[in-house]
Design goal:
- The chain has eight helices and six strands, in the order H-E-E-H-E-H-E-H-H-E-H-E-H-H.
- By secondary structure, the chain is an alpha/beta fold.
- The chain has a six-stranded mixed β-sheet, sandwiched between helices.
- It is globular.
Length: 280
């Protein structure tokens, strides 16, 4: 084939390849977006309870000790977020209840726990979760001057990558969330940074490449903002270092499995414990 003929064939083929790639990316993106929107129909967690070290029923998210207005001197734990902390899926435990029980064991006393989570939630939707927690009078700061720990755990960012808002910046919403929890609620915030969605099983190129890059940007930004605001960042990528392994993910591949949730809870409790020890 003559060089001029090869050049002509190449010039005609490249736009076709580019067009096919764009069509594939559009199809994959629409499919992923639809899955995250479907997650919004799944039950999240909206629980309020007081948990002690021996409350074995906490694993199921139930306890006989609901919050009351006379427990404001007790330590407080607020859990806000998306699928990675919502405890969704068959047989999944309540991450908030497990954290509450673990924190109660660390502190040797009962802990107030308020969880407001929703699978598939974007940052702007989690702003409403934060407002709900801050408006709950049962979670208010002690009026007697008690210095019991107040801890908030937050996970956000995944849905913002897949279903970006046209009116809100994910970075701005995240920064506002940290400020509100720290300044208005008086919480020490633990941040679960956005996982690398490009590593989730079943995600193919070219979407995998796009999600991998954007996830790294969001995760890095969240880490830096957490550090600059004296929050405690935890990398979900490291906690779920075996994300490609089915054992850590639920069947949906967009939330942890029973083992995955327990791994996240263990990492959060270890981070809280290290922080409490550093304050002694």
């Amino acid at each position: 084939m003559k060089a001029s003929t090869k050049l002509l064939v190449t010039s005609l083929t490249l736009p076709l390849i580019a067009g096919a790639g764009a069509a594939m990316l559009r199809m994959q993106s629409n499919r992923m977006r639809a899955l995250f929107e479907r997650d919004l129909t799944l039950p999240g967690e909206d629980i309020a309870m007081t948990i002690g070290p021996d409350d074995t029923s906490a694993e199921a998210g139930t306890t006989s000790a609901p919050l009351d207005t006379h427990s404001e001197d007790l330590p407080a734990l607020a859990v806000i977020g998306d699928s990675w902390i919502a405890g969704t899926g068959p047989g999944a435990p309540s991450p908030a209840a497990l954290m509450g029980r673990g924190l109660s064991t660390l502190l040797g006393q009962r802990v107030r726990v308020r969880a407001c989570t929703q699978p598939g939630a974007r940052g702007e939707e989690m702003s409403a979760q934060i407002a709900t927690v801050l408006a709950d009078s049962r979670m208010r700061r002690s009026r007697s001057g008690s210095t019991a720990p107040r801890i908030a755990v937050i996970s956000m960012g995944s849905a913002d990558l897949v279903r970006p808002s046209v009116t809100h910046s994910g970075v701005a919403v995240f920064s506002s969330a940290l400020n509100r929890l720290e300044r208005e609620g008086g919480y020490r915030v633990v941040v679960l940074t956005c996982p690398n969605l490009g590593l989730l099983p079943g995600v193919r190129r070219p979407l995998r490449t796009i999600l991998r890059r954007s996830s790294r940007v969001v995760s890095g930004s969240q880490w830096l903002m957490a550090v600059s605001s004296h929050a405690l960042p935890i990398s979900l990528n490291q906690v779920l270092s075996g994300t490609a392994q089915v054992g850590l993910l639920a069947d949906s591949r967009r939330s942890p499995s029973l083992l995955g949730y327990k791994q996240i809870v263990a990492a959060v409790l270890a981070r809280i414990s290290a922080d409490l020890d550093s304050q002694v």
